[in-house]
Amino acid sequence: MNNSSTSARRRGLVVQATRGRSSSRTWRARNMIRLLWIRKMSEAGISLDDKRAAVDEARDVEDVLGRLEKTLAVQEADIKRQRAAVQRLWVVGSPLGLPSPLVTDRLSHLPSDALRPSDLDTLLVTDRIFGPLGAAVQVSVFITLATHPGLRAEADCLGAADAALDDTVDPHDPQVEELAAQHCAHHKALLQAIEAAGLDVAEEKLFEIHDAEASGEEDTQMSAFEAVTKMPYGYSAARTRCMELTAQLLDGDLSAGS
User: pLDDT tier at 15 (50, 70, 90 boundaries)?
Assistant: First the structure.
């Protein structure tokens, strides 16, 4: 008996031979057919349990094949997503292809070194927490910073000031409120530059597409304050309060302008 038949016998897929010449011939013929079925089912990727059920006629072969088809369809979809991700990285030729397609598409016109590693890190975090739409909208900020050296320098200064708000700083120190006001002013300048470049129009189109696809679904958009509390960083109390104050200032400006 060859390896296939031995393996099938060990798994209980082939019946044991009975005594007698006539019975032996019947056993050989029946198990030859079983082995052919088993081999073909193995080539199709059918599981051991399904093989046993099929050869024992305990379950309709069409039912087994139907469930196998669904499993293969799921695997095929996963492979397509993986290949699409690899293709994006290949086409972009840089880590800019790591975020979701919505983000990558908006960055496609920029040089590969236009975004700094920290910018890409931020986009990946935003993509993970708020989804592709949130990250795609945030791209406007990084496009603006990449094309406006003055705003980039100002952002760097604010980032350094944020880092200085360590655990030794009292959350109610006046410098915390002053820094929050500077962040608010910087954000306003960013918005003006974004509108001047027409990037806000691209954002509106993203929202329109999202609203059309999410029609009838519950709105899960969160406030700026909720967004701050969900960021995966262990910020000091002073830095957290600075972020909260900035969000409150921005919310107040939006309310006043509406």
Answer: very low
- Residues 175, 115: Cα–Cα separation, whole Å: 30
Helices (H), 166-198: 174-196
pLDDT over 70 at 181, yes or no: yes
Per-residue pLDDT, 183: 96
Lowest mean pLDDT of 28-32, 178-182, 247-251, name the range: 28-32
Asked whether the beta carbons of 127 and 99 are under 8 A apart, the reply is yes
Compute and round to an integer the Cα radius of gyration of the chain: 31
3-state secondary structure of 47: coil
Q: Give how far Cα 166 sits from Cα of 176, 180, 238, Å.
A: 11, 15, 7
Residue 218: CA atoms inside 13 Å, Cβ hemisphere, count? 2
Please compute, for residue 99, the number of CA atoms within 13 A of its CA located in the half-sphere on the CB side.
31
Q: Please write the tens of the pLDDT for every residue from 123-135.
A: 888 888 888 888 8
φ, ψ of residue 94 in degrees (nearest 5): -160, 170
Pull the structure tokens for residue 146: 């990449």
